[in-house]
């Protein structure tokens, strides 16, 4: 039955996926920018830096709490969605793999809340925020897992609605909380946001044609535990380690330069994230399931080349507009207090170009489950990022961290070309 349902589903190509994800990502981008604006105006550069610290912590915690299985769930649900027995085993196993570590992580966050507040936010007065997040991190994990299932089943429209709901809720709650209660309000809103919208995500999942509660009641299958844990290692190397490196770099900027400089760097990075989000989200939602299903080398080459022909020209146009309108962007998205960050744009844009160009190849490592290769490159470039950033900040000041970004992704792009030719299409 499930097989026939998925056969009737409309196939999404890159353009259609780009359109639907573009809707959700554009709203997420606008919501994030409005929130950043409120924080910039009410708290200033230092507030931007502190909120970024907490966001990075949420990212690390959620990745560990879900055991980093999101991309694995997308891959194997997409690969076996026509086989009801395999789908049952994957969904049941992934649910348990996500819940068990999330409970453990929540307990640890509560226990170490005071230490985390001092380490990340320079004071223990926000320890209660970490306790609140520790209580809700399991709900965060379930929300992430549910969206991964929608992604894997190819239900892009539903996934778009979920993401749009998340964005609107975050926009309203975080902006209002930051405006009324300054930094404290913003942190509390971030700690609870995804937990609240879990109800909406579960509603969309339950309304899917394939959905049955029995699909989540099977015993744990160690075959899939091993497969998913391979993606856990990849998630730790690609999300947890780089995010931790980012926290350490931000701490170094605060200690060696100033909190305001850390805020300028975060603001530049957030602008970059905003305009690249449509591209990167499309890659995550479209390429991973698509490349997972392609078996022939020539089909893989063709798919990647078609992606380059569509995405890179659009990316160049976006980057040109961002550079030409950089002053206006800073004024609109932040405030006059952030105008000093204008000189950071050129190296950031250069790095962003090579970042997307390399990601289009690196997704093939995920799609083909090249676990060791993926982990090795991610860990290597996390070390390169940290060493380059610390060295160039010491030599050049704040702009050094942005040049480190550009140099890193240029080297990464060259390595991806080499790996693509040598290993990824064999």
Describe the structure.
The chain is mainly alpha-helical and 426 residues long. The chain has one domain (2-424). The protein is built from 15 helices and no strands.
Task: State the total count of DSSP E strands.
Answer: 0
Please state roughly what percent of the residues sit in beta strands, choosing from under 5%, 5-15%, 15-25%, 25-35%, 35-45% or over 45%.
under 5%
Count of individual helical segments: 15
Q: pLDDT below 50 for ≥5 consecutive residues: which ranges?
A: 1-12
Share of residues in helices: over 70%
Query: Which secondary-structure class do the elements indicate?
Result: mainly alpha
Shape: globular
Gyration radius from CA atoms, angstroms: 21 Å
Number of domains: 1
Topology as H/E string? HHHHHHHHHHHHHHH
From the N-terminal CA to the C-terminal CA, the straight-line distance is 34 Å
Q: What can be said about the biggest beta sheet? A: none
Mean pLDDT: 83
Summarize the structure.
This protein is mainly α and 426 residues long. It has helices spanning 2-8, 14-42, 45-65, 70-80, 84-111, 113-121, 127-152, 156-206, 222-256, 259-293, 297-324, 326-333, 345-367, 371-396, 399-424. The protein starts with a helix and ends with a helix.
């Amino acid at each position: 039955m499930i097989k026939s349902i998925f056969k009737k589903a409309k196939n999404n190509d890159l353009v259609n996926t780009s359109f639907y994800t573009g809707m959700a990502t554009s709203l997420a981008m606008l919501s994030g920018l409005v929130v950043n604006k409120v924080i910039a105006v009410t708290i200033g550069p230092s507030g931007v830096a502190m909120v970024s610290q907490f966001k990075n912590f949420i990212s690390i915690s959620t990745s560990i709490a879900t055991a980093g299985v999101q991309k694995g769930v997308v891959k194997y649900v997409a690969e076996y969605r026509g086989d009801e027995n395999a789908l049952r085993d994957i969904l049941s196993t992934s649910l348990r793999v996500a819940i068990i570590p999330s409970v453990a992580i929540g307990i640890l966050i509560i226990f170490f809340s005071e230490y985390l507040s001092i380490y990340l936010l320079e004071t223990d007065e926000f320890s209660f925020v970490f306790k609140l997040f520790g209580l809700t991190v399991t709900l965060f994990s379930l929300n992430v897992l549910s969206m991964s299932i929608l992604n894997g089943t190819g239900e892009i429209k539903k996934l778009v609605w979920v993401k749009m709901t998340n964005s609107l809720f975050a926009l309203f709650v975080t902006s209002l909380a930051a405006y009324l209660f300054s930094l404290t309000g913003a942190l509390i809103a971030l700690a609870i946001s995804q937990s609240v919208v879990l109800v909406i995500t579960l509603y969309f999942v339950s309304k899917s044609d394939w959905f049955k509660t029995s699909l989540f009641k099977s015993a744990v299958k160690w075959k899939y535990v091993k497969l998913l844990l391979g993606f856990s290692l990849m998630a730790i190397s690609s999300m947890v380690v780089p995010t931790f490196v980012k926290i350490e770099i931000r701490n170094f900027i605060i200690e060696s330069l100033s909190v305001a400089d850390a805020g300028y760097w975060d603001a530049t990075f957030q602008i970059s994230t905003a305009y690249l989000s449509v591209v990167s989200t499309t890659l995550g939602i479209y390429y991973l399931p698509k490349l997972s299903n392609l078996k022939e080398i020539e089909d893989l080459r063709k798919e990647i080349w078609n992606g380059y022909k569509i995405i890179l020209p659009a990316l160049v146009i976006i980057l040109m507009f961002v550079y030409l309108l950089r002053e206006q962007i800073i004024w609109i998205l932040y405030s006059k207090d952030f105008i000093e960050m204008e000189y950071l744009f050129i190296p950031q844009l250069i790095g962003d170009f090579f970042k997307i160009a390399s990601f289009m190849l690196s997704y093939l490592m995920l799609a083909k489950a090249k676990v060791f290769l993926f982990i090795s490159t991610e860990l290597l470039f996390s070390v390169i990022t940290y060493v380059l950033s610390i060295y160039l900040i010491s030599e050049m000041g704040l702009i050094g961290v942005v040049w480190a970004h550009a140099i890193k992704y240029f080297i990464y792009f060259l390595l991806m070309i080499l790996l693509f030719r040598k290993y990824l299409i064999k």
